[in-house]
Amino acid sequence: MILRIDRVQTEMPPPSTPDPAGAAVVQELLGGKFGELSTFMNYTFQSFNFRQRQGARPFFDLIANIAAEEFGHIELVSTAINTMLTGTGEKGALPEPKDLLNRQQIIAGGSATMLQDSNGNAWTGDYVTSTGDLLEDLTHNFFLETGARNNKLKVYEMCDHPAARALTGYLLVRGGVHQIAYARAVENLTGADLMKMFPSPRIPTEKIPESQPHIEKGEHKKLYRFSPSDYLELAAVFNGPHPETGEDLEVVDQAPEGFPPFDLPAQEGVFAPDYAPEEIAEIARKLRQKAGLSDEPTGVVANDGKGVVDKVKDAVS
Amino acid sequence: MILRIDRVQTEMPPPSTPDPAGAAVVQELLGGKFGELSTFMNYTFQSFNFRQRQGARPFFDLIANIAAEEFGHIELVSTAINTMLTGTGEKGALPEPKDLLNRQQIIAGGSATMLQDSNGNAWTGDYVTSTGDLLEDLTHNFFLETGARNNKLKVYEMCDHPAARALTGYLLVRGGVHQIAYARAVENLTGADLMKMFPSPRIPTEKIPESQPHIEKGEHKKLYRFSPSDYLELAAVFNGPHPETGEDLEVVDQAPEGFPPFDLPAQEGVFAPDYAPEEIAEIARKLRQKAGLSDEPTGVVANDGKGVVDKVKDAVS
Amino acid sequence: MILRIDRVQTEMPPPSTPDPAGAAVVQELLGGKFGELSTFMNYTFQSFNFRQRQGARPFFDLIANIAAEEFGHIELVSTAINTMLTGTGEKGALPEPKDLLNRQQIIAGGSATMLQDSNGNAWTGDYVTSTGDLLEDLTHNFFLETGARNNKLKVYEMCDHPAARALTGYLLVRGGVHQIAYARAVENLTGADLMKMFPSPRIPTEKIPESQPHIEKGEHKKLYRFSPSDYLELAAVFNGPHPETGEDLEVVDQAPEGFPPFDLPAQEGVFAPDYAPEEIAEIARKLRQKAGLSDEPTGVVANDGKGVVDKVKDAVS
Amino acid sequence: MILRIDRVQTEMPPPSTPDPAGAAVVQELLGGKFGELSTFMNYTFQSFNFRQRQGARPFFDLIANIAAEEFGHIELVSTAINTMLTGTGEKGALPEPKDLLNRQQIIAGGSATMLQDSNGNAWTGDYVTSTGDLLEDLTHNFFLETGARNNKLKVYEMCDHPAARALTGYLLVRGGVHQIAYARAVENLTGADLMKMFPSPRIPTEKIPESQPHIEKGEHKKLYRFSPSDYLELAAVFNGPHPETGEDLEVVDQAPEGFPPFDLPAQEGVFAPDYAPEEIAEIARKLRQKAGLSDEPTGVVANDGKGVVDKVKDAVS
Amino acid sequence: MILRIDRVQTEMPPPSTPDPAGAAVVQELLGGKFGELSTFMNYTFQSFNFRQRQGARPFFDLIANIAAEEFGHIELVSTAINTMLTGTGEKGALPEPKDLLNRQQIIAGGSATMLQDSNGNAWTGDYVTSTGDLLEDLTHNFFLETGARNNKLKVYEMCDHPAARALTGYLLVRGGVHQIAYARAVENLTGADLMKMFPSPRIPTEKIPESQPHIEKGEHKKLYRFSPSDYLELAAVFNGPHPETGEDLEVVDQAPEGFPPFDLPAQEGVFAPDYAPEEIAEIARKLRQKAGLSDEPTGVVANDGKGVVDKVKDAVS
Amino acid sequence: MILRIDRVQTEMPPPSTPDPAGAAVVQELLGGKFGELSTFMNYTFQSFNFRQRQGARPFFDLIANIAAEEFGHIELVSTAINTMLTGTGEKGALPEPKDLLNRQQIIAGGSATMLQDSNGNAWTGDYVTSTGDLLEDLTHNFFLETGARNNKLKVYEMCDHPAARALTGYLLVRGGVHQIAYARAVENLTGADLMKMFPSPRIPTEKIPESQPHIEKGEHKKLYRFSPSDYLELAAVFNGPHPETGEDLEVVDQAPEGFPPFDLPAQEGVFAPDYAPEEIAEIARKLRQKAGLSDEPTGVVANDGKGVVDKVKDAVS
């Protein structure tokens, strides 16, 4: 079971210049073989399928808990893509076909994220490996994170849109923690010192400017516990020195606080959420009143009530 | 972001007679076009992709919150399949090929759930529809839940394994709530009275014996809020009379408590979690000690410390 | 069984400036999840799979008959794409790779339609839902037409090539009729008033200039009977007022007359129909003579014998 | 455009003993790479994509016309599968999982045809080859029909259900005509004498008992013209001696008369068309009355009004 | 470039009792995600795509050379499957549908291997990972071999047909060498001691009776050089002690001799190679004579000229 | 079994101006339905699955031997793509998203070949047809080569990069030989004179400037034997006059000599083979020394020791 919190794990920039080509490339980090949907689904199903979870509790806790963080990552990648696509669904101003690497982001998705990779191919359950063999699954996960890190580094280089940079700067740090976590789990299970394989790819994360603020906050050595009550044995496997900095790896006994999401503006040209979004807002207001709820929306968003919406609107027009 | 809780939404029976043929059929409810992975992923990405979420807050809250419940459903279907497969991975006693409708549950999955449907085809991101158009997405979701209910009813009939029956008995009730929720959302948005389309398929859930205990507890009319802090506007759309019983629909302001999961026994013949699982347990114990954690596993499971494990072991041998 | 008539359902413009980027986008209306191949195949197989067709005759007739019209739609979308691609297969002048969103239209298709969507992914039988449950299938069909209308509106906006506009202008009107037809079928079966959900997406078709001539001819309220002898009970479900105009829905007791297709010019550079098409023509002439047929081709085409061919040739050169 | 006629091309037996295993095998003839959906779609799109159709009219007419006949073949295969599955969706008596080679025929399809092959994989648009190069497409079509004949012969041997035998007995004869037609087209275009390649596979159709009645009626040498007005130049390519019997190939200037389809009984257990099909019938009756149509269904079916329905019901119970 | 030698890498048993269910399971080792087609294609394309091959020559040589051995493995798996299917394509005696886990082995393949996994899903190019990053590719390859070993062990347990046992007994030994080779390559590149991860899965290969004869011949510690002239630097990475036995790893400077393949008997019922195979043989004889070649076939097969053919024929009848 | 030789079948130009758009188009010749991976895999598996190989030896030898040549073709296409992509993975200078038709060549492949077609869809085992029926498989292969020739001609026209032209100029000649070989095999088996169907498509290869040097060397009429010891009966089927020139077809009793491959330069920006490739080179040198091998790399490459590397480096910078 999960509880959902309407916040994103890192602060993301507001929409600015639309970048549909970049948004097509960032899809690799969502729906690619090494994308976040793969990491989320792999760890989630490995945790569902785990046998003898009591007897292997520290390992179960590790996989199940990282799965929970990965949900936040598919949310973040989607946020970045949707931010980059804001402005591509304006009324009467849809993009030219020739400017669209991924046509379905507009036609099928409503200027939004698809469950596809950067070539526009759908994510598939085939990308999940859940063999039940603990050592094999951990080895797989270490490799999967290595592949994910490779792709993040390239997407970082290829896309200079602020949302893409904020995304990859953050994910490189957090994915790096998971890469270490699985390597340490293998080490703790077998004695093989996989720490010597870091960094892989062989460029240190600290060279990425957008990663540095997160490293300064120690995000590169912390594993958060994403549960009010469970997954208490993380420290049994996530421990020892960080392979690059030598600092001690740390388990943080709660989830990070996160940041309120942006309320992305309507894109009437793709009917998101409608051709006449103000009518939806009016209906929503009446329904809220009828239900005895507050007059104004209760949700907290980054651009709430402070004129940010207008600035965003300006930015994309 | 999510927090994960290591409990399942309904009480599931312990492993008993292995049923690999049934377990292959239940896959439809996991990875089929109308399976729970489809409902989870559809609502999750619709919530990520939602535009003007403040202006359409009650609808956003509905979709985002049901997505959270659906995570529990993919967990439950996996639990049922894994329970039905317990006993198919015993050392030196793998099933005969001819008895396996889905060979990969054993070979690839380790006597466990695959991200596939009942014909063994992988789930694909193509099964997600997230257009951004609120009315269209809600219409889709109502239809998706209708298809899901159809499939649950058939799987219920085809599979008499206790785990399959417990699963479908529960999911029929909870999926029915989601079917109503989306129909009500359409009604509240447009005025069209979709309540007249219930039940669809046209067999009342209350006829299913395994659903009755849940109906008696009122589970057929409650929408739980799966968040410590967010999704406060559910009542603005989830309201009015239940289409079949006429009772008032209710929003429950917290998640259900859930039940501890079973610690499914090792299946050494498929190396889950190892060919020598007791060695894993010994390593885990030492790691826990070294980290200064408790000597015994901290996790709470249904068969913990009460001899249930042995009974389960007996049941599958 | 079918009889085939070599005419297209609406008048299409001759080839003009080639538009391979637009032609790639229009593929969504052919091979996308909500494309015309999906509507054609869904209704066709639902009619094949229909049980108790006598007892549910009006509904069977509706689905089977709309299936027949949809054949004309896959023909029309292909016609538009092929028209837009005329000029991309000229001898010695194939397009630059960088100008091609869909490379296979040229390489695999011979400057022609592929069974793919706008991202170049193949149509799949997974897109067909044929559950046998009448209410569920009708609900699905209503939703499918809604999704189709969404995509047509966006493709209309994105593509200004005359063939794309003629296509979408027409399909929006005819698809709108099918959307109403299935909604009415649900209403007549259950009493739920789905008419309140129109238009969906919430932009009236009459705002589309290219749709207006068809609306003026009443095409938005007519259901044609595409059979010399069967499907006589359409009026039992297709009746009542049009949801937007209030006019009475009408069943027309025969198929529309249609228009002769264009004889699209050869594209020697992609060997369609040959590197030396005049040789094919000469062989054809001789075969016709040998068989005692007319000297000249018997087929009727839009550009037959009136110098139009040359004008087309000019247009694309 | 097409006109649809509610008849099937050959007489099919009524439902008898259900044969879900056989029905799974017959799927190869529907959705396999060489199945009828492939032949239908290949020729249909080749005709849509045809360039210089006037200049190559006899060849265009051949392909376009055979496409029309193929629609009747996907209808026939579906009819056979649905007939074989009648009795697998009875209320309270769904088949055991272990007896189902294709679980989705029951769960997704409602005891009906899927767009899949015999391994349960979905048909895909990748199976269509439409290059525009006339000689290449004709060569392809000859090869496709050869593969189709191979599969029909094997399915004939593997499935002894009367519906499978009636189907394959008929399709072998008609597919054989198409195989000859395309070979003759290649011959007439190039002079290569492909007639020497017959029969391929090298077993004469006349050895198949269920094919003999059709051969006796001359169905093995006739090409029907499936159009009220078009495709008049078939004889320019379909001519000369039959490669096996030496008889003259013939063009028949109209479609065959066909046979009324069976009204397949409801399968309440899979909700086809409903859990309470008599209610649907009652609603249909009222709708017919309200529309001023006849009291009784107007459609003509094989088992109409002569007690056959009851016999069928008996057969499957 | 390659030279092909018409021998198989290990001695395989002749056809005996047909085992189509087992043959469907063995497909996992051919077309599964971790099957031999995956290993062959991964290493082949990694070698094609290798950059700076001079500068990283020992690693290039390792990957390129193992790719060559893997060709022999896809050949062996196919040989096993075809052996197990011998007897399923007899004239007038095709298997019952209910006995076929993979129908297409008979219908599409001619009682032969498909490019599919054990669930009948096609192998896909998505299974290839070729990132260009040497460490990442080597890590991947080590993991891939681990997954392959897992699957071989399970297929060994599930299938007791002599061909399946001979196959898996041999592949476990040779795949084990590749698993070590890639682990050593990682070690030699980074210093991480992956040897501690062996065996993975944690069951020693020497426990498999059918592997023991190969281990006795030292096949578990030898890397053969499959080239007349190239890949001379294998010893720079394939060296050190065997992780389980401590024996020195060895590079053998030539390919193994191999064994002549069986001449599998015709299966007339599936037209392989024909419905009347003796006619093919007669044509072949004449063509040989006309070309001035020997009267008898020149190829060397295991069952040539010693009455073995007849014994095989007996075995399958 | 195979032996691998580290040479390519024709001389390829060094890297020059990067051409990622062209490289995306050339993918069709690798992973398209009619690409070289299809020809390689079709013939390879047909040879594995061949029954009665002694009785049909000349045909077996033909298919098995051409399979061996096709390995060289997938190597050549990859070489061309990788050459065209050299320069797209430079440190700090990855291409703009908008310039990439195939994003995964950079992100997933490391500026290298993917197992995909020109639309970026993965190659699939479905593209293999191996029916066991000799005549059918030969017919298929003739058709497959025809489709391959069509695609090569178009890619030739669309891509003017020297590597693409060298590739297609060569493949057109060699593929033409295979097209003839299979046509002759059909002729020799049945008597049908398929030679009349050449050239298909109907443009003679000798018109292609880049093909002419190969034709001058007689490469259009020679079938090489790619084996040290086997496939001795090729001449029994590959004989008679060339269909276009009338020259005698020839069997050459050994493989062509080939050319050393280029050592493609590192692309540090995509970590191929590393972010710091010189470190890899240093490690390799030490490993070689430790193993007692030569100090310098032993492999022979086109740009070895003669300053060519530097020129290549210049060309791509």
Number of helices of chain A: 9
Mean pLDDT of chain A: 96
How big is the Rg of chain A? 21 Å
Main β-sheet of chain A: number of strands, strand sense, barrel status? 2 strands, parallel
The residue ranges of chain A in which pLDDT falls below 50 over 5 or more consecutive positions are none
Which term fits the overall shape of chain A?
globular
Spell the H/E element sequence of chain A.
EHHHHHHHEEHH
Question: Largest interface, by Cβ-Cβ below 8 angstroms: which chains and how many residues each?
Answer: A-B, 107 and 107 residues
Oligomerization status of the protein chains: homohexamer
Helix content of chain A: 40-55%
Distance between the ends of chain A: 42 Å
What report would you give on this structure?
Six copies of one chain form a homohexamer. Chain A has 317 residues and is mainly alpha-helical. Chain A is built from nine helices and three strands; from the N terminus they run E-H-H-H-H-H-H-H-E-E-H-H. Chain A has a two-stranded parallel ribbon with strand order 2-3. In chain A, helix 2 packs antiparallel against helix 5. The termini of chain A are far apart. The mean pLDDT of chain A is 96. Chains in contact: A-B, A-C, A-E, A-F, B-C, B-D, B-E, C-D, C-F, D-E, D-F, E-F. Strand 1 of chain A pairs antiparallel with strand 1 of chain B.
